[in-house]
């Protein structure tokens, strides 16, 4: 029976090889990939810890021989031995027949596109920093050249355009790379101190992005008296955008979780609460800006405000996620030190002479 099972297993393996998909080794953040050796056990591929792995350079091609026990890996043969490579480091090769379907996820295909590779470099980050410094420079120049209406008008147009470009870069990066959008300060890639050194300038850039609304106000109201209390309305829209999801979650916890009210009517009410919270905050911001600056300018300022809020939410959320991971690591290290200190405490005992002695490790 075992021989028959092995026979059909090898038949399945050779069949897979005959119609194997080809993949190009395409790591996003390095020039090579380390692959682990695998062994076939119970018709599934498992890591073989007794054999050394290999390193494949970027651009190499592998032929899939199946999927390992961990479904995120592709198994391939190299020099008569079997290895596995993570799917996130692979791109469906152009050498495959046109009729062959790409088994990689849509998210993985986006990551390994030309745009995905662009956001896997530091170039977008430097563009964002350059745009924010451009906004700061416009603020100081507009204040220094306050008598020039032409330059002030240019600054009032250029600052929102620059901030819109920043937001679009951030959203596009997240769309193509997902959780890897802020790879350059990732703990798993750079460790604690390496990630911390990258988070500090990242936080400074996000702080400048948040403060940009004040810079724009400084240009917009440059000709107003010093005691003027004019300002762009931001907080209503901020609360509306930030509170719509928590409001819906609270509704589900109370109404669905506690009282058990489910059904189509309950879902409609939750959607209405979501829209009321979102729209009311945005509407109040638009109303206040129009009341202060008129319909045309107030509407444009409100549009800039919404773009600004979305950018701040995306960037701020990224900083919080990175800091949270670092804090978790600090807590884990502190807990380990505490446990070791307790375990390494000296053992006390009473000697034959009646004295208390402490045995130190």
Task: Please give the structural blueprint.
Blueprint: H1 2-18, E1 22-25, E2 32-41, E3 44-47, E4 54-57, E5 61-67, E6 73-78, E7 81-86, E8 90-92, H2 106-111, H3 114-119, H4 123-144, H5 149-177, H6 187-220, H7 235-258, H8 264-293, H9 295-343, E9 347-350, E10 356-359
Antiparallel strand pairs: 1-5, 1-8, 2-3, 2-4, 2-7, 5-6, 6-7, 9-10
How would you describe this protein?
This protein is α+β, with helices and mostly antiparallel strands and 361 residues long. It has 9 helices and 10 strands. The strands form 2 sheets. Strands 1, 2, 3, 4, 5, 6, 7 and 8 form an 8-stranded antiparallel sheet that branches. A two-stranded antiparallel sheet has the order 9-10. The longest helix has 49 residues. About 4% of the residues have low confidence.
The percentage of residues in β strands lies in 5-15%
How would a textbook summarize the main sheet?
Answer: 8 strands, antiparallel
General shape: globular
Derived structural class: alpha+beta
Low-confidence stretches: 4-18
Q: List the total number of helices.
A: 9
| Alpha-carbon distance between the two ends | 57 Å
Number of DSSP strand runs: 10
The whole-number mean of residue pLDDT values reads 84
Roughly what percent helix?
A: 55-70%
Helices and strands, in order, run as HEEEEEEEEHHHHHHHHEE
Radius of gyration: 29 Å
């Amino acid at each position: 029976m075992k021989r028959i099972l092995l026979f059909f297993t090898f038949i399945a393996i050779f069949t897979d090889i005959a119609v194997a998909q080809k993949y190009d080794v395409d790591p996003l953040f390095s020039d090579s990939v380390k692959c682990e050796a695998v062994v076939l056990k119970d018709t599934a591929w498992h890591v073989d810890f007794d054999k050394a792995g290999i390193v494949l350079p970027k651009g190499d091609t592998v032929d899939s021989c199946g999927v390992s026990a961990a479904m995120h890996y592709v198994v391939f043969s190299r020099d008569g031995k079997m290895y596995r490579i993570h799917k996130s480091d692979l791109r469906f090769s152009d050498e495959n027949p046109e009729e062959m379907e790409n088994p990689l996820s849509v998210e993985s295909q986006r990551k390994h596109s030309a745009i995905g590779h662009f956001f896997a470099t530091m170039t977008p980050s430097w563009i964002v920093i350059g745009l924010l410094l451009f906004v700061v420079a416009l603020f100081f120049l507009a204040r220094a050249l306050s008598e020039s209406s032409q330059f002030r008008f240019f600054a009032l147009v250029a600052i929102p355009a620059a901030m819109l470009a920043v937001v679009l870069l951030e959203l596009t990066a997240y769309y193509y790379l997902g959780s890897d959008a802020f790879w350059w300060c990732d703990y798993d890639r750079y460790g604690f101190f390496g990630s911390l050194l990258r988070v500090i300038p990242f936080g400074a850039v996000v702080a400048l992005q948040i403060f940009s609304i004040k810079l724009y106000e400084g240009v917009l109201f440059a000709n107003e008296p010093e005691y003027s209390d004019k300002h762009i309305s931001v907080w209503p829209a901020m609360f509306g955008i930030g509170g719509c999801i928590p409001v819906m979650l609270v509704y589900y916890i109370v109404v669905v979780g506690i009282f058990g009210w489910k059904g189509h009517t309950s879902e409609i009410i939750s959607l209405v609460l979501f829209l009321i919270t979102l729209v009311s905050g945005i509407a109040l911001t638009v109303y206040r800006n129009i009341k202060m600056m008129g319909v045309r300018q107030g509407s444009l300022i409100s549009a800039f405000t919404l773009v600004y809020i979305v950018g701040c939410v995306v960037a701020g959320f990224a900083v919080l996620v990175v800091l949270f991971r670092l804090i978790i690591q600090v807590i884990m290290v502190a807990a380990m030190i505490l446990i070791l200190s307790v375990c390494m405490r000296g053992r006390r005992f009473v000697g034959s002479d009646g004295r208390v002695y402490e045995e130190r490790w």
